[in-house]
Amino acid sequence: xxxLVESGGGxxxxxxxxxxxxxxxxxxxxxxxxxxxPGKEREFVAAINWSGTSTVYADSxxxxxxxxxxxxxxxxxxxxxxxxxxxxxVYYCVxxxxxxxxxxAWGYWGQGTQVTVSS
Length: 119
What we know:
By secondary structure, the protein is mostly beta strands. Helices cover 0% and strands 53% of the residues. It has strands at 3-7, 10-13, 17-25, 30-36, 43-48, 55-57, 65-70, 75-81, 89-96, 108-109, 113-118. The strands form 2 sheets. Strands 2, 4, 5, 6, 9, 10 and 11 form a 7-stranded mixed beta sheet that branches. A hairpin with a 6-residue loop joins β5 (43-48) and β6. It starts with a strand and ends with a strand.
């Protein structure tokens, strides 16, 4: 059984920075982040493999967000630099067996953490 606990969400100004964290318990392989804005479907944000040597990003965040993981702490991070108002959403930490952009491919989800970007 995998349990995920996210933290770090909140209010940030556009152009600022914010870091999300997700601590995991249980057997972990691939970790990632999705987000869901009001009235929109959940969308893939970023993912990282077990060793941290492979990362994938959505085009909308590439160059601004960075995903990383600390294997010793079983924790994944999402560094959000220069966030935009359109990045406002609930961010979910996910765990799965392979990096995929489809939500259904991920077996475990955190409870979500709200990120609000103000202009």
